[in-house]
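User: Can you model how UFG sits in this protein?
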Amino acid sequence: MKNKKRVLVTGGAGYIGSHTVIELLNAGYEVTAIDTLERSEIRIVEGVKSITGMDFDFQKIDCLDEAAMEQLFSSNQFDSVIHFAAYKSVNESVEKPLLYYKNNIGSLMVLLEVMKRYQVHDLIFSSSCTVYGQPDQIPVDESAPFKRAESPYGATKQLCERILEDMATEGIRVVSLRYFNPIGAHPSGIIGELPIGVPNNLVPYVTQTAAGVRAQLTVFGNDYNTPDGSCLRDFIHVCDVASAHVKAIQFLEAKSSDKIFETFNLGTGVGVSVLELVKKFIEVTGVTLQYKIGPRRPGDVEKVYANPQKISTAFGWNARYDLGQSLAHAWQWEKRIRGIQ
Ligand code: UFG
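Assistant: Here's the modeled complex, given as structure tokens:
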């Protein structure tokens, strides 16, 4: 008799995917994780197994590969799917829009086809606060309108949400989680983010600079309309992001309706400036960090942070880690991959 529910995690070797697999295993789910390993490494999968002391099914599969996805669904009975598999670099998406539309939209199309064919109804989608652009009101709540996306990456998230909203009539029940700025790493220091090349995102740039891989951090702009002039973001620990996915699955499991499309902000509700983050990093790690103020980065939103009321009420979810812990964990991970004591 089947008593454990099985979740398919696409992009399961990725940054948020791998941390979510840990939360799922710890919550008693059986997991099948798939990933191309194009932008991650098998050591992350092994790290998840060593952290949890549990085994799970990992397969090197591309969601765009229809035959492989068909085979996967025909040989497994999934109760739900968490779809992380997507490209996520804003800069790269501006340079290679077709790559982004093809991968991020195409993989969702294939996934929805097989879910429909094999009558798997429940889907958690990996969305982003980028769907809001620069909101008129902050903290931003889920009712804020979408502004024109600043990048093809943002456009794929907007479009995927629209597609999923329409899928309600096809019997696919969806929770879309709009992440703010996920940072940090697993407290064990065994897994974390593996940025490719020069990081675009703030925290990997900070930790690589502290580790001596980069000479200096540039803070992009100190003339914004914010208390210290640098941009304001809602930084959230990746394990808090991960735990919300388990709650999202349980939220769908508890619903009997066959038409569900719900969006939730996934942030802490606290706006932190880039300069505040830099100072906090120095404070919690005791490391010196070379940084300078540079010009604004084109396309950056001045300030955005979440109103997390909806997710807190619906899931009983709240962030467990604060900024200092998130940065300490990010630094611990960076030291591990660089072999720093
Ligand atoms: N920043 C710097 N220096 C850097 C890197 C970043 O000052 O070297 C600043 C940025 O200007 C911004 C803030 O740090 O003000 C955060 O920048 P990130 O690149 O870390 O993140 P974004 O807020 O730009 O978010 C983007 C997308 C999200 C996506 C996220 C993670 O908008 O959708 O990257 O990939 F989820």
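A couple of observations from the model: The radius of gyration is 19 Å. The longest helix spans residues 97-117.
User: Helpful, thanks.
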